[in-house]
C-alpha cells in the first residue's frame, strides 16, 4: 500500500503546474531587499537558505548581513508568478522580467543587495 501511495504522490507532483517568477529576500532590520527571477519557484526559499547558510554568496553584502544578523531577520516572498507552460524562451523571459522589476523597485545601494546593471538607465 505504501508503494502505491508513493507512486500517486510522484505522479501528482509531476502533473502539478510549474511556476516561474520574481522573488524577494528582505532584511527585516534594514529593509534592504534582494530581487531575483527564477525559472521554478518550487522550494526556492530552501535553496537560498541552504546557499546562504553555507556562505555560498561570500564577498556580497547580502551574505555579510545574513552572517551578522542571522537568518531569522530575513523574509522571503514571491512578488509575481506565472505558469511556465506558455513560455517558449525562458532565458529571455527571465531577463526581461528582472529588468522590469529592478526598474520598478531599485533594490540597489541603501535600498537593496542587487548590483546595478552596467547598462542601467533611469526610466
Automatic annotation (TrEMBL):
Domain of life: Bacteria
Protein name in UniProt: Uncharacterized protein
Organism whose genome encodes this protein: Lactiplantibacillus xiangfangensis
